[in-house]
Please model this.
Amino acid sequence: MIEYIKILILAIFTGVTAPLPTSSAAHYSFLNCVLNFSSDEKLFGFYYSCFMLAFSVAVILALRKIYIKSMKALFSKEKDRLTRAYKERQKNIFLSVIPTLLLFIPVSKDMLLADYFEKFLSANSLLIVAATSIICGFILVIAIWYMKKGVNLKKRGATSTEVFRMSVYNLVSFAVPGVSKISVSATNLLICDVDSKVITREVFMYLAPQVLVFNLIKVIRALISGLVFDPVVLIIGVAAVALSGGLIISLSGKVNMKKLYGFFSVYSIVFGIFVGVISFVI
Model:
């Protein structure tokens, strides 16, 4: 019963923080140390990958109309402006996934680049989590400064080059917990002059396929390797992430997220300092 409560706490925090400009992996890693949930880095990483799969599916369901229209436009012969725009989005969705595949390049006989994530999730890496959380806080400060600066004509969507570059930048967040995918993606698009009013939609739209592909491959690899896990624990965790993450995703569509960047920049820095202090105590 205690294990079920622990996974529920981990899952709820993951679901709530995943759609926000703060690192869900950082909270997941920190809570694992506090709750002493698992010392098995492969099992711990497997649960997190399943949680992020649930998050990516929640995002895709929330933006299903855009994805469906983009897919239909891809096979349409119409040449109107709206159809061309949806075709461009579909192309960008495919482009966003390509850099993620680089993480599955072998770096040794038994290890891929993506496998470093599990090592960074372990209790011995809290200082890394602390440092990256602080860095992400300052990344949001850059985003806030850029919004206040007020620059060129605001674009209503990201170009293919900008989406691809955003995906490349996100490779670090897939390998090192503490680097917030939302923060990195949003800051990159803001610097590219994408309108802050549509930043949340644009980030979710191109980030979800990346998260889906990356974690789906990791889950399949774990299952093929014969990893042993508790299915009840997994079901509880995935359900909690889907519900809590889905709620935050729906609320993010009603709230101007740019107004929250200030709060989360301070929160990420304070959280990073707190984790750093705790790492010397645990």
In short: The first helix runs from residue 2 to 17. The first strand starts at residue 106 and ends at 108. Strands lie at 106-108, 111-112. The chain is about 70% helix and 0% strand.
